[in-house]
Amino acid sequence: MSRFYYEIHLSSGEVLDGREFVDEDSQYFDTESDAFEAGMEALSAMHLGEELSHMSNPGDYPMADVDDGEVIVVEEY
After folding, report:
1. Backbone angles phi and psi of 29, in degrees to 5
2. Who contacts 5 (Cβ-Cβ below 8 Å, separation ≥6)?
3. Where in the chain are the domains?
4. Cα–Cα dist 27/51, whole Å
5. Does the pTM of the predicted model rise above 0.90?
6. I want to staple 4 with a disulfide (CB 3.0 to 4.6 A). Which of 12, 20, 35, 64 is the partner?
7. Are 4 and 35 in contact (CB under 8 A)?
8. Which distant-in-sequence residues (6+ apart) come within 8 Å of 64 by Cβ?
């Protein structure tokens, strides 16, 4: 049975492995669409965190160019 996880590929070349952000029981998904949705939520949360940091203290957290990133779903057998 296949299981899926997501990675977020940033334009800087950095790859964020979605399995590193959650506990062991939540690292894999049964469907590709579930993994993609979780990756999109993680990417959205990352952008929201950047915006909140900037709003709370713009001098220490200047708004950087938005790195849209790309969610890639990986199938593991």
Report:
1. -125, 150
2. 17, 18, 19, 27, 28, 29, 35, 73, 74, 76
3. 3-76
4. 26
5. no
6. 35
7. yes
8. 50
